[in-house]
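Cross-posting from the modeling subforum.

Setting up a comparison between two proteins and wanted a second pair of eyes on the formatting. Protein 1 (sequence, then structure tokens):
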Amino acid sequence: MKPRIFFAFLYFCSSMIVQAQTPYVVNIDSPNFRKLVVALPSLDVTPSQEKQLLELQAKASERLSYLFKFTGLFEVMSADAFKSKERKVLDVGFWKTIGVDSVSSGSLTLVNKRLTLTLWTQDVHQNKVLLKQTYKLSDPLKLETHLRNYVDKVLNLYTGRPGIFQTKIAFIGKKTKTSHKQVYLCDFDGSNVRQITAEPAIHLSPSWNPSGTELLYTSYQKGNPDLYLTKLASKETILISGTQGINIGGTFTPQGKLVAFTGSTDGDSDIYVTKPSGGPRRPLLVGHGSEVDASFSPDGRWLAYVSGRFFNPHIFVAELTWNSDFSDLKVKSDMRLTHAGWYNATPTWSPDSKKIVFAGFDKDIGRFDLFMMNPDGSKLERLTLDSGDNESPTFSPNGRLMMFQSNRIGNSPQKGVSQLYIMNHDGSEQRRIDTGLYLAEEPNWGPFIEQGD
């Protein structure tokens, strides 16, 4: 995944964005959406420096193609469709002739051992260079970071939403069959895996704070399922809730001032809230059955959760009221959303608060599949079918992609060990994300964090 290249240490990085005109905004939620066709001619290199830069040129071109394809928004045109001499001029007529919507390319130069990468994107229909960015660096290992940064900016131009290439995924993994379940982080595609917890105990349900600097999770390190918080920068870990019984499914409120989780009293499970620093817990949702899997809508108006008050677990939604500084909340009313399915679980919201995705057990085929619906329970859609058990969905910050766990084995009816999978938000283009671990499950996609140029 990472380019293997030569030079040492980052010297300087500067950038310039030229936005000549706001381009056509792609509505990725439209049912009539079609992928934009993008041409990615190889980066130019100075003839006298070709031998030094050709390997880097090939790696940069390969990574650009990979990143554009991964978004699910672009169809990358084969280089066989155009000749190198024709891409040296921004020939709009030529690109229109072969059906290209957008062209992205650039150049690599090497002066006094300092590498300069320049990238530009031209919108063919507007005949405008929408974005131009220049990076100066002496460590080509930083090339990947800059390519991700650039494609994120292209995504933002065309969709009006942040990209995903500077985001992280928290998940539960096992290195081997006999390992304990630990909390891990990885990049958007499963690369750069990093272990967060190490205690010889089971860990469950990782969840991000709104700023992407802290993780909630449940650990059995003291024998009881307790809720912990780890600050990623300092690695400081604090106990949030250790009441005897369960303390699971922790999630931050959208403003980050409270944590909701499922706790138990005398065997009955309900949803409680507490402060991120820990302290006394307060009941938020107390029902006649188990109340679990709390999930706040990003706009803060609703809380989706699972209740067993009607025997089988179903998805409910509660309307919330907040105090003036969002440090406390109450449930105004709630209603049941799902009526079909034998066991429905793990609801999660789209970033725009307009959709809920959840895992539902289909008793007729003996499998969990993923379903999507409106916040009022209408327009129920099935996203997975005939491919093992599919659970724990989580949206990318821009709402375009969705990650989940699946124990599918190819296209067979058999079930194996859970791994991470990704798909477009409509269920199309499902593919595995390889973390290199024996088991990977319970993904939680972190927020977009601007890391600069």
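Protein 2 (same layout):
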Amino acid sequence: MKATILFLFLVSASVSAQEIAGSWSGILDVMGNRLPLIFHISKTDSTYTTTMDSPAQNALGLPTSKTSFAGNKLEIVATGLGIFYQGTLQGDSIPGTFNQGGIPFPLVLRPVDKPVLNRPQEPKPPFPYKTEELKFTNEKDNIELAGTLSIPDSAGTFPAVVLIAGSGPHDRDETIFGHKPFLVIADHLTRKGFVVLRYDKRGTGQSTGSYPIATTQDFATDAAVAVEYLKTRREVNKSAIGLIGHSEGGVIAPMVASENRDVGFIVLMAGMGEKGIETTMEQNRMALELLDMEPENSERSLKAIREMFESLSEWKGTEADRAALRDRLSQLWEQYPILVKMKLKKDAFVRDQFNAIATPWYRQFLALDPAEYLQKVKCPVLAINGEKDTQVLAEKNLEAIKSALDKGQNYRYETKTYPGLNHLFQECETGRADEYGKIEQTLSPDILSDITFWIKKQLNN
């Protein structure tokens, strides 16, 4: 689910001795492989935020958790990726060290011009509505969540929506590959008369807390707190608050709605209906297909992967557990074709996969059964998927969602598969993740209009 990523940069421009805001590039030399990386640093008042690009992997706009700059020393942390960069501004360069997974690499950054990505749907000010930067508190976990509230610029109260992001250290716009889908959704809905709350996930952007140790259940408590916050706002119709969740957010929305009858409706965008282990196995199956493995080898690898995942249900984190997991990963690497093994070094593969799989989030996700929550949801549900989604397969998951709702005797739902759309609901060719950043469209307009129409229909019933 969560991939380890390395990054990059090019070009140059002059920079004042004490100014760090802008785009900075450098090249990592990892065992003879030159990997470019770009940091885009921005400053609001006294707060710095950073996004990262890895052009070689077509990974653009990746959010980081923390950026600080004091005494000419720059620190950038991306906890979800296991990345830490520290350097010192010296004239027009920043010599420093890039650390990922505990392994340090020298990295010298130099200023560059930020590439202009054509994202025609991204809204630009002035907006015909009000926006407010705010913070609200998850008192149970002592976490402060930072977000943006957009409010129609007219008198009265309005229906409201909380946007819940998918897996990964997402900011409030769910920034991914240079796209800002939650900004586009918030803009569209606010223009149509909704209050919309979107927020940085815990440990990301301006929200406090620790992202690396958080689980799906933790993110659900944050979403529940967001609902409670909306109920305190005078602009919000308290009887018309709903949730829109994308990917993992499409699992979190039923988790919240199953316990809170104040949630009036939920929209699941590429949400799971199958168990976490089944979704993850399907993703591994497709990944092995891209390696052009022989069917017999692929099936053997999938069997080993499933056995490894199932063994994590008994995980206690002992040294014996950790050694057994490393051993299983080592055996898995041995099954790969020789050409794959030449590109994928064994030690790095075992280390990176171990660091991802052993996290609380991953282990809880494998055991997660969305049906457990969907069966308890009593409010109206809209579940939609892209037909070319390669991360959460449309037919299997929509059928599982319908089955769970029927079992819970909730018949107030609609499901729809959109031909030609991917996991991000973009019009696409292959549906694979390496295509996301190449597509100019952020969201199909049909998705925006259909979601709006369906929500208004529920509110008028």
